[in-house]
Request: fold
Amino acid sequence: MSDPAPTSLAFRLMATIRAHGPLPIAAFMAAANTAYYAKGDPLGAAGDFITAPEISQMFGEIIGLWATDRWMKAGRPPLTYVELGPGRGTLAADALRAMAQFGLIPDVCFIEHSPYLRAVQAARVPRVQFADDVTRLPGDGALFVVANEFFDALPIHQYVRGPTAWHERCVGMRDDRFVLVHAPQPTTAAIPPRLADAPEGSMTELCPLATRIMAAVAAQFAARGGAMLAIDYGYDGPALGDTLQAVRAHKFADPFTDPGAQDLTAHVDFGALAQAARAAGAHVAPLTDQGTWLEMHGIVTRERSLGRRDPGKIAALRSARHRLTDPSQMGQLFKVLEALAPHWAEPRFAAD
Ligand code: SAH
Reply:
């Protein structure tokens, strides 16, 4: 990075590092992603990446049908559909259309930071209301919460195991370039006890914002009734490793070049999310692969019925379903976390 423009985020981050010393990776990632999502639409062929709802309407429809089934079993209470980071609003539009076919017309609330994407979402789902505070979701009925590729965009902290302790990994500067350094003091963060004896040089990640959001949302649907689906690439942590990545124009890039111009993500620790949801009073189902989950909930039937209606689309539908479910595509890398209010949960979750 040489000579960034004085108005650029890189320039401002460098000034901050010069004045105050290295920044935790989480601060760098938060600043980069806030700038990145504010500037436009990152999705689609002309953007940087494509998400499951943009691949096929079947994705949002299956999610809508899953929610409708839970809602019927719970006695059809008043419901608010909440989506975290809805992108273009495609998943919501598809899910809400599927719900409406069964008489479920919920209120709709989106949590979205980007003013640009808020406008796109409001055009897609005109009855939406936006909320800023996840600790006080609107309404007082049940909640159905969806988060697809939301948690991976939240800032992570990274830690490196030194000879005797864990140290936070930070972004410093050398010769006007960003470089990675370790904080000299051991971290006071709560590194999971299971990782205490990791060998020197090991890395691990924590995403306290993700666990805070999960805890806040789960506390509300656990009390009010409802359920949540969190879908993302991730693992059942705690675990060792460095998963920070940048994606630009559908290719991996260096996360520390050109902050704000590319999407920074990290794999989601579903173990940490599940623990936060349980501590808030929700029941959590065993983590499922996206492919298995979509097949369990009827994607093949949905593909056939769409194909019968429009035979010209049969090949495209099959290829979309393959992309969403095949283990070599998104089927295995992506996971689905189901969390439910205790009184919405099925008996198979009762022992959790
Ligand atoms: N769920 C969509 C978009 C995924 S991209 C899809 O599947 O297509 C990530 C989304 O989360 C974007 O809408 C982005 O603006 C939003 N986002 C990222 N960080 C956020 C934060 N801290 N608070 C609210 N929204 C955020």
User: Anything to note?
Assistant: The first helix runs from residue 9 to 20. Confidence is low (pLDDT under 50) at residues 348-352. The chain has eleven helices and 17 strands.
